Amino acid sequence: MVAGLLLSGFYAAASLGTSLIFGLLDIANIAQPAFLILGAYAAYVMNGAFGLDPIVSGLIFTPVFFGLGAVVYRIYYESFERRGAESLRGLVFFFGLLFIIEVSLSMAFGVDYRLVQTDYTTRSFEIAGVGIAFRYLVPCVVGLAMTLTMYLFLGRTFYGRAIMAVSQDRMALRLMGANPVTIKTIAFGVGIAAASLAGALLISIAPVIPSADRDYIGRMFAITVLGGMGSIGGTLVASAILGVAESLMSTFFGPSWSLAVSFGILLIVLAVRPAGLFGR
Prior knowledge:
The protein is mainly alpha-helical and 280 residues long. It contains eleven helices and two strands. The protein has helices at 2-24, 32-50, 54-81, 88-109, 134-156, 158-166, 170-175, 180-205, 214-227, 232-253, 258-272; strands at residues 124-127, 130-133. It has a two-stranded antiparallel ribbon. Strand 1 and strand 2 (130-133) form a beta hairpin.
């Protein structure tokens, strides 16, 4: 139970980009988990070369991934969205992007598991007899901070409100003096940057391989749908539900069954409450 709650902070961080891009922009970016793993490998390289903490590395690379996300969206917009062919062809575009990133990482780093070591990786403490490992606690705290930052960004800033408006009323957005394409470019960049920083948290928790992105496709979309499309608070609640459910499933039925939880929750939510817990 405690492990599941601690994992929920990371799951929330990993799903913020999906909640933004899929939940608010209505873009089914199935390559999002690939950027998560790419961020993890960026932190791995910086840790090996300079001994930097992966979280510090993630923060350093955030502007880089923001720019990368902006470029990816502009290609997507010019090639598909502007022509009204974003549904099926756009999905194929993101699938191809996921495949290219995964293969490129495999060629560069091989298929062996990669992990970083930090000062807090092996440390832990106890509360009421329950052991809490810092390698789970630190990413959880950072993930919660990321979630709060995203919530404040969307609710308290001009660009955040513009991102909310672009999915609801484009005419009102134009009256605000904002270009919808520019706003969506910024939103997409923020979503990719959030995924890369979450990747730095991931490699602090567990070893990664290039194909690990497949383990997070179901999780990210399940959390986004369960929490409610575009709801940051819902993303946090859904992450806690999924984290605890996976932890219980792993404890009683074995780790191999934990991945099935996210897809099971996704199917149930789509059938029972498509709008999610806090859906708009």
